[in-house]
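Let's do one together. I've listed all components of the complex below, 228 residues spread over two lines.
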Amino acid sequence: EAQVTQNPRYLITVTGKKLTVTCSQNMNHEYMSWYRQDPGLGLRQIYYSMNVEVTDKGDVPEGYKVSRKEKRNFPLILESPSPNQTSLYFCASSFHGRSNQPQHFGDGTRLSIL
Amino acid sequence: DQQVKQNSPSLSVQEGRISILNCDYTNSMFDYFLWYKKYPAEGPTFLISISSIKDKNEDGRFTVFLNKSAKHLSLHIVPSQPGDSAVYFCAASRAGGGADGLTFGKGTHLIIQP
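Okay, and this is what the predicted structure of the assembly comes out as:
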């Protein structure tokens, strides 16, 4: 089954404790992206990757890091999480980064930073 | 500065009637528009899209209309069914590749009443 898998689905942690949210897709997609969803703000892009070893900032990259060492994986790293990063996070992928490619989303990761 | 606006946070429609969800955009560089549907505890799923060279695209019960001069698009669902109750996101991407991904509206919560 074609899918985007995120782990964990839920996490409660404390300020400053490094965490990683994993994202994996099995569709051989070149393009991957991370979004966060906040009440009243919709989905905002954090980082994206056009292909292996190619990453770039989205609209709200501060406080986040990503890496793309393999095509299928695109982890989101919070080196020193803060309460304002409490949010619902979605990973997405598409065949390539062209504008006419619908993105496939994972089911989300809800992070609570205390 | 929100480039994609969905001004109705929620919409209630009777089962069997037409649902019309609206979306406005400000960036004239957008050339591709998509609608996503989101159920609670799931990621957004792609519903329908339209290129800026068209003014209408239809897929079963779903039709998207684009008015470029007004920078406005709408999603029509006919007839509305209980399973259509969800949050609908309008999204847009820029001409020339859109590598920086999609710009989303804040979403409209559609409630189909029996």
